[in-house]
Design a protein that fits this description.
seven-stranded antiparallel β-sheet, elongated, alpha+beta, 474 residues
C-alpha cells in the first residue's frame, strides 16, 4: 500500500514546483505541469519548450487536464485526512486525548481502547461502548497487575528450572567421579583376577618344565652309565684282539662272555611325554579362564536406577539393593525422580516377552514390590492400585495384600519373592522362589512400558535393612 501511494504521489507531482498538481496542463510530449508553474517557466525562459524534454510545444494555448486535476485533488484531500489523523494521534499521551475541549470530562472507548473527547468524538459515542476515564484506569491497572503477576510467576518458574539445571550439573559431576571410581574398582578386580590367573598358569607351565627336565635328566644319567659300561667292554674286547695266539686263547672266553652279556641288554627307549604339554596350557585358554571367572562374576536381572530414587533412599554401589536412609539427600529434582513416595524403579523397562527376578526382602516389615507403568506422574499422588498402573505385592504389619486391598494368604513369612512378568499375556505373578509356590497373579492389558518397582516405608527398626535383587551366576 505504501508503494502504491509513493508511485501515485510521484505521478501527480509537478516537476517544476515539486508539489501536487494544481490546475494541471499536459503538453504534446505528454509531460504535465501546474498551469501557473508552466506559464512562469515560459516567461523566464522566453520560449515555449517543455521544462523536462525541451521539446517545443505545438499548442498556442494550454487547457486544464480535468481528469488529472480531479485525481490530484482527490489524492491531496486524502493526504489531508491522513495528516489530520496523525496530528490527532500525536496529541494523545498516556491514553488521554488533548484537544481544545480538554477541560471537559474525558471518556474512554472500550472498543478501541483509547481516550475520546465527548465533543470531538460525539458521533463516535453512538456505536461504541464508553466508560469514564477513572473507571478505565482502574480496570486497566488491575489487568496490568494481573499481567505483571503472570510475568513474575513465569520468571520464577524459569528461575526454578534454571536452579534445578544447576543442581543437575553439580550432581552430574559427582556422578562422574563416583561412577569412574566404581568402574576402575571393578576393572581392578578383573585385572587382579586375570593377573593372578596368569601367574598361576605360568607357574604351572614352569613346574611342568622342571618335572619334565628331571625325568629327562634321570634317563640321561642311566644312558651315560650304560655308555660308560659299553665303552669299557669295547676297550676290553679291542685289547683282547691285540693279544698273541696263546694268551688270546687262554682269556678270550671271559671277555666274550661280558661282551655278549652287555649286548643282550635291551636297546634304550625314549620316554614318552618328555616334552611340555603345550596344548594343555594354550588350548581354549581364554574360555577356561572365562569359565573360572564366572564363579566370581554375578549377574543381576534388574539394576536400580539412582536417578529415579527418592532422596531418602540409599542405593548400594552395584545398584542391586536399596534401604531407607537416616537423612534426606540433596539431589536434583530431575523429571525421573520420585518426589512424594520412597520409591525407586528399575533402570530397564519391559514392553514385550517374559521377564522375572527374585527380590530378597528379609525381615523388612513394610514394602511394595512389583511393576509400574512408565507414564506414572512421579511428582504427584498415585495410591498403590492396578487402576493407577501399579501391579505389586504389598507387605504391611506382617500381612500381605495384592495392592488392590485384597488380602493374600501365604503359608509362611516370605524372605524372598519371585516377580514374573508375561507382558504379551498381560500377567504379573508372584511366587515363593524356595518351592515356586504361587502367591497370586494379576491379569490386565498392558499398553505401555513397565518398570520394576520398589517402595520402602519409614520403620525405625528397619532403617538398616536392605531390599535386594538376588544375583545369579552367569
Amino acid at each position: 500500500m505504501a508503494d502504491r501511494r509513493t508511485f501515485l504521489k510521484s505521478y501527480l507531482r509537478c516537476r517544476v514546483c515539486s508539489k501536487i498538481f494544481r490546475d494541471p496542463v499536459s503538453l504534446g510530449c505528454s509531460h504535465s505541469f501546474c498551469s501557473n508553474c508552466l506559464k512562469t517557466f515560459w516567461e523566464q525562459a522566453k520560449n515555449k519548450n517543455c521544462p523536462i524534454c525541451k521539446r517545443k510545444s505545438s499548442k498556442e494555448h494550454t487547457e486544464v487536464n480535468f481528469a488529472l486535476k480531479e485525481l490530484a485533488e482527490s489524492f491531496a484531500g486524502r493526504q489531508k485526512t491522513e495528516s489530520f489523523r496523525r496530528e490527532r494521534q500525536d496529541k494523545e499521551w498516556d491514553g488521554m486525548l488533548v484537544c481544545e475541549h480538554s477541560n471537559d470530562p474525558q471518556l474512554f472507548c472500550v472498543d478501541e481502547q483509547r481516550a475520546v473527547c465527548p465533543v470531538c468524538d460525539f458521533p463516535h459515542q453512538q456505536s461504541h461502548k464508553l466508560i469514564s476515564v477513572e473507571e478505565a484506569v482502574s480496570v486497566l491497572r488491575e489487568q496490568l497487575k494481573s499481567d505483571l503477576k503472570s510475568l513474575q510467576d513465569k520468571r520464577n518458574k524459569y528461575k526454578q528450572v534454571e536452579e534445578t539445571y544447576n543442581e543437575m550439573i553439580q550432581h552430574s559431576k559427582k556422578q562422574l567421579l563416583s561412577t569412574e571410581r566404581q568402574i576402575r574398582a571393578e576393572f581392578n578386580k578383573l585385572q587382579q583376577f586375570l593377573k593372578e590367573e596368569e601367574e598361576s598358569r605360568l607357574a604351572a607351565l614352569r613346574e611342568e618344565e622342571e618335572q619334565k627336565g628331571r625325568t629327562i635328566s634321570r634317563e640321561m644319567k642311566m644312558i651315560e652309565e650304560q655308555i660308560s659300561s659299553l665303552s669299557d667292554s669295547i676297550s676290553a674286547v679291542e685289547k683282547e684282539l691285540q693279544k698273541h695266539s696263546m694268551p688270546f686263547l687262554s682269556s678270550y672266553k671271559d671277555t666274550q662272555s661280558r661282551a655278549r652279556a652287555q649286548s643282550s641288554v635291551s636297546d634304550p627307549q625314549l620316554v614318552s611325554g618328555a616334552l611340555i604339554d603345550v596344548a594343555k596350557h594354550l588350548g581354549n585358554l581364554s574360555f577356561r579362564v572365562w569359565e573360572k571367572m564366572k564363579e566370581k562374576v554375578h549377574f543381576s536381572p534388574v539394576i536400580l536406577d539412582p536417578n529415579t530414587a527418592h532422596p531418602i533412599l540409599c542405593l548400594s554401589d552395584d545398584l542391586t539393593s536399596v534401604k531407607y536412609g537416616d537423612t534426606k539427600q540433596q539431589l536434583p529434582d530431575n523429571p525421573e525422580r520420585n518426589a512424594n513416595y520412597a520409591n525407586v524403579f528399575g533402570s530397564e523397562g519391559f514392553s514385550s516377552e517374559k521377564h522375572s527376578w527374585v527380590v530378597e526382602v528379609g525381615d523388612h516389615p513394610d514394602w511394595n514390590i512389583g511393576l509400574i507403568k512408565a507414564s506414572t506422574d512421579r511428582k504427584g499422588e498415585y495410591p498403590v492400585s492396578p487402576k493407577n498402573g501399579i501391579w505389586c505385592l504389598v507387605h504391611r504389619s506382617g500381612k500381605y495384600n495384592n495392592g488392590d486391598g485384597q488380602t493374600v494368604r501365604v503359608k509362611k513369612s516370605l524372605q524372598r519373592i519371585r516377580v514374573q512378568l508375561d507382558y504379551n499375556r498381560g500377567e504379573v505373578s508372584f511366587y515363593d522362589p524356595e518351592d515356586m509356590t504361587h502367591i497370586y497373579t494379576h491379569r490386565d492389558t498392558f499398553a505401555e512400558k513397565l518398570f520394576p518397582y520398589f517402595c520402602i516405608f519409614n520403620v525405625d527398626d528397619a532403617k538398616t535393612s536392605d531390599i535386594k535383587i538376588c544375583e545369579t551366576k552367569i
